[in-house]
């Protein structure tokens, strides 16, 4: 996992790139949503945007294990509230 943080005027943004392994629960080729279970038992859903990855996921069956790399981000803006 890699992490980044950047200060911007009045706020900031943080993000991280995560590489993880998932056991495939189900992939919906119509919505491109992959549901999987992580090694620690958490269920996650990921929208797959890469057309090449979408094609590959259509060949998987439940129970297959895949490696995924995705980016999570959060932006925060602070504003002063008038009295």
- How widely separated are the two ends? 42 Å
Main structural class: mainly beta
Percent of residues in helices: under 10%
Number of domains: 1
CATH C-level class: Mainly Beta
- Gyration radius, in Å: 17 Å
Q: The CATH topology, please?
A: OB fold (Dihydrolipoamide Acetyltransferase, E2P)
Question: Can you offer a commentary on this structure?
Answer:
- The protein has 83 residues and is mostly beta strands.
- The chain has a single domain (2-77), classed as OB fold (Dihydrolipoamide Acetyltransferase, E2P) (Beta Barrel).
- It is built from one helix and five strands; from the N terminus they run E-E-E-E-H-E.
- Strands 1, 2, 3, 4 and 5 form a five-stranded antiparallel beta sheet that branches.
- The model has no long low-confidence stretch (mean pLDDT 83).
List the topology elements.
Blueprint: E1 2-8, E2 11-28, E3 33-38, E4 43-47, H1 51-57, E5 65-77
Antiparallel strand pairs: 1-2, 2-3, 2-5, 3-4
List keywords for this structure.
83 residues, mainly beta, OB fold (Dihydrolipoamide Acetyltransferase, E2P), 5-stranded antiparallel beta sheet
Can you summarize this structure?
The chain contains one helix and five strands; from the N terminus they run E-E-E-E-H-E.
